[in-house]
Input
Amino acid sequence: MKVTDQLHRTFTLENTPKRIISLVPSQTELLYDLGLEDRIVGITKFCVHPYHLKSTKTVVGGTKNIKLEKIKELQPDLILCNKEENTKEIVETLEKLFPVHVSDVKTIDESMEMITQYGVMMKCNTEASKINNKIQFHLKDFQEFVKDIPVRKVAYFIWRKPWMAAGKDTFINYLLTLCKFENIYESHGRYPEVAIKKIRLEGDPDIVMLSSEPYPFKEEHAFELGRFTHHAKTVFVDGEYFSWYGSRLAKAFEYFKTLHKNL
Output
């Protein structure tokens, strides 16, 4: 079967994949929710959902640093990567040895396209359609919920030392916009380094969000930021709901509702 991934790369699958390595945490969760746990042979150390996979599957490194010999030993018939999560070098190395599918997701439509592609590749179209239908249902419900909520300015931080925020052309920014948040760093690049001392000059947000991943923000960091904002409310948010595409999206909209109700 000829397969075209989301980077418009074409590769061949001789048979339905039975030995799959996922190098992307959200895509590992998607495989599980598609009912494909038995086909997963390798995951990354960051693949934490569902948690028990860490003790039943082989960990082949991280998303940016793989253990190539472990991957070779597993002899996968499909490896799942992502343009943002994995490096170009990793993809180029692996595609010389095994079929590699690369996702590229910045919108919900692209997420559902990826899920559909998985359904075709893995011969689980019905399960893929069910997940996409759930996402569409909860999205429509959330859009109705949020339609009369006023837009509020937000800064969404993902890292400290240096301080880094989510910017334009990212899935996080797409979901922020969907949630009626105006990202003050949208014009600063994808993940810009920012000077928090200038936060009022660069947008003066109503809300500062500190993501649960990839940096472990604490109360002291909220206090540090608070010194430079103008009465902005600082909230700790679940980064998985803002950055994990795939089946987690079906649960994300209820989280976004709760977030709005608590602001």
